[in-house]
Amino acid sequence: MIVKPGMKVKISDFYTGWAHNDELKEAGKDVVKQRAGEILEENRTALTTAQELLWADNRYSILIILQGMDTAGKDGTIRHVMSGVNPQGCRVTSFGVPNRQELDHTFLWRFWRATPGRGEIGIFNRSYYEDVLVPKVHPIIMEDQQLPPGSGSNAFWEARYKDIRAFEEHLVANGTIVLKFFLNISKEEQKKRLISRLKTEEKHWKFSLSDLTDRQFWDHYQRAYEEVFYQTSTDSSPWYIIPADYKWVARTLVADLIVRGIKKLDLRYPETTDERKKELEIALYELQKE
Ligand code: AMP
Ligand code: MG
Fold this sequence. Notes:
Elements: E1 2-3, H1 22-27, H2 29-57, E2 61-68, H3 74-81, E3 90-94, H4 100-103, H5 109-112, E4 121-125, H6 134-137, H7 154-173, E5 176-184, H8 187-199, H9 209-216, H10 218-232, E6 239-243, H11 247-263, H12 274-289
Parallel strand pairs: 2-4, 2-5, 3-4, 5-6
Antiparallel strand pairs: 1-6
Helix pairs in contact: 2-11, 3-11
Bound molecules: adenosine monophosphate and magnesium ion.
């Protein structure tokens, strides 16, 4: 599930269902689903506590990056995993097609501005990884992006991967934990979800004709993602490939990895100095004698 640095992966080798080992298969879907629900609940509570401590400690930040094909479940994962978290310390930013002002800057510009501050959890719903996916699969869109000559060449893509590695390395070195999740759905499951969007009026707003176009480029996207994993899974910010045909599986795994990520930090509440303790004692005394 974790992509080891320098490893060439084939997405088709990764399982998208609920039983990625024999032990789970033996236990059966109902049992696994129930246990997953319990683990998600435990992790939600753990996340609430961990976030409070992250905020009080105020030295580290968490950046969660969610990528995946259309309908992979990015929005729902954010909603479920972060439901117990204090909104004050958490910010979700969704990135769509870049606008004119964004295109007038380098591709990382808009992401810089959205990085989480110390003590905060930032979530990127899509990210700068789109910049090495969409234009790579549809080079024609670069014609309208005022890019310098040579754009679209191998050297151009290599430079983007390098920029991304450097960007993340910089964040990590300065106290940000970068967690990158690829929600891995099968092509069949995407078909089901798209059909459901078309058949359910309350889901119509989620459907975009471009989803169908991109579906025709499924294999191109898979290859582009494989290159992303190869180029940008590093020791300090590895990629996690998350089986996502079942929403409950994806949500449970993502929540678990976030909690584990935060727990690795040496978070603590700021110490109360002796001087400050005296100050507090006096305040308490004043209040009590009122
Ligand atoms: P959604 O996530 O459904 O709101 O869709 C956002 C759309 O914006 C998707 O089709 C993305 O592929 C597209 N998008 C996001 N970032 C970029 C980018 N840098 N270049 C081109 N398209 C992008
Ligand atoms: Mg969409």
